[in-house]
């Protein structure tokens, strides 16, 4: 049978896929993939702070990512720089600060590769608790703000005019993004978490004609990616994060084939 | 019912600035239940801005807005929908409120687009989309309808039918309507109150009062006099001061 660490990784990965599925749809719809990247890059700083002050990694990453999101919103209001320049500025400077801080922490042996690309060996029972309770809270909150968030994604002014308070929904969604990065950083790694958000959702877009279907297919795609990715990482001894992302890429390519076939059938 | 209770939205000397330039200023108007208030004016005169002030979309405004209802249906002038979203007409109808299936069908039937219910929103023509927008706004059975150029891109016969529908909705639902229209003819025949804008309120009052106003005539020129002719048709009777009809 499988080792305990593998079972833990499996449970963790499936929990993450359940959350990144619906959130990823909003990332695709609202064109936030680079925003997700920025939050993920800043997570390295969160991890180093967790080691320095002996905090919980997920909590520390959540705090730093939320902070970076707040700084971004302030910078957008106060400068005339375009959004992508601000995102790049924050992403790379927070990554740099994180790496410099790691340099100072000579007393701790860091598994940088594990941080960047995910490490299934690192998943503990405590992590499972964080992923599943955190994930459940994220999904619950997302369900509560679904209406205003979705309506303002379609059209901000309609949502605002008809009394749905889209600004509040957007702020809450930003926090949810920070939270999903926080719970999945160990498993998928900070360079690849955005892939986990985007690729299953992109795959789902190819095969769905309604928002509900897209969310459903995105979740299914994420779950399949985790299963395929983790089993192949065990088989070929590869890192967990890249294997999961590669699996989702394969599903994405398959979804493209599916479109071509259905067009052929129609003709 | 006192007039206070029937007020849905009230603008007091409201205005909005952007980059130190007034988009519109000093607008006062009231929309009441069962009444149609129409905004007219040339391009850039602040009609859509006034509607957005009334809806609470613009936050930093001068003056004040008092809104007494949250049941609002809005048909914006411009709507850009991102086609990264897979969205059918049906999903769009449920956008801001969970409406019963029958109400959706009824509204789509009234605007003549029930056959498009399961079509992707991105594949509709301009006129079809406009009909869906109107259907969405009325299906909520709102107390306040804000219609910004609601029949743009709709074919001529459809235009007349939709204006009749709007009038009927105002009567049956007893909702207040804030309408923006370029079609002066429609405006002058179906409206209770007209506000003529040109960066500020030029003139306002009943359609007849406005049509006689000199500022209105300067703004709309020849078109205005044509509309007047609708009213100043040859009478075979005259009205006495008390409104009684006397044959010539």
Q: Any overview of this molecule?
A:
The complex is a heterodimer of chains A (267) and B (248). Chain A is mostly helical. Chain A has a single domain, classed as ABC transporter involved in vitamin B12 uptake, BtuC. Chain A is built from eleven helices and no strands. Chain A has helices spanning 4-29, 33-53, 57-78, 83-104, 112-117, 125-154, 156-161, 166-188, 193-207, 211-236, 240-266. Chain A is globular. The mean pLDDT of chain A is 89. Chain B has 248 residues and is of the alpha/beta class. Chain B has a domain at 3-71 and 179-247: Rossmann fold (3-Layer(aba) Sandwich), CATH 3.40.50.300. Chain B has a six-stranded mixed β-sheet, sandwiched between helices. A three-stranded antiparallel β-sheet of chain B has the order 2-1-4. A two-stranded antiparallel ribbon of chain B has the order 10-11. In chain B, α4 packs across α5. Chain B starts with a helix and ends with a strand. Classes of the chains: A mainly alpha (267), B alpha/beta (248). The A-B interface holds A 28-29, 31, 147, 150-151, 153-155, 157-164, 205, 208-214 and B 52, 55-57, 70, 72-74, 76, 79-82, 84-88, 90-92, 95-97, 120, 140, 146.
Summed up:
Chain A has about 270 residues and is mainly alpha-helical. Chain A contains eleven helices and no strands. Helix content of chain B is about 35%, strand content about 25%.
Computed over alpha carbons, the radius of gyration of chain B is: 19 Å
The largest contact between protein chains, plus residue counts on each side, is:
A-B, 25 and 27 residues
Number of domains of chain A: 1
The total count of strands of chain B amounts to 11
CATH topology assignment of the domain at 3-71 and 179-247 in chain B: Rossmann fold
CATH architecture of chain A: Orthogonal Bundle
Radius of gyration of chain A: 19 Å
CATH homologous superfamily designation of chain A: ABC transporter involved in vitamin B12 uptake, BtuC
CATH architecture annotation name of the domain at 3-71 and 179-247 in chain B:
3-Layer(aba) Sandwich
